[in-house]
Design goal:
With 90 residues, the protein is mainly α. The chain is built from 3 helices and no strands. Helix 2 crosses helix 3.
Length: 90
């Protein structure tokens, strides 16, 4: 795998950071208002959203890779995360 090591760190403008903070605060408020059942069912939705975002990043990182390879990389990253979580439980 070749990684884009030349990527420049990006810092959003102050106005954008304020908007991000405001949106995050709103999400926290909404989450606090959710019932335990709603929170339980939100888990799979959040996981799917995270996978979609990660897959978009993989496609950006490997623009010439076929879709099957992108999905394989996603699976590899999920497995790595599972192993890392397993190590931290020890």
């Amino acid at each position: 795998e070749v990684f884009k090591e030349d990527a420049v760190a990006y810092r959003a403008p102050a106005e954008t950071q304020k908007l991000i903070h405001s949106l995050f605060q709103q999400e926290v408020i909404e989450a606090q208002r959710m019932s335990p059942e709603e929170k339980f069912f939100a888990g799979p939705q959040l996981f799917e959203a995270a996978c979609r975002i990660t897959l978009a990043g993989i496609r950006n990182q490997f623009p010439d890779a076929p879709e099957e390879r992108c999905l394989e990389i996603l699976r590899e990253r999920l497995e790595l995360q599972r192993r890392l979580e397993g190590q931290s439980d020890s």
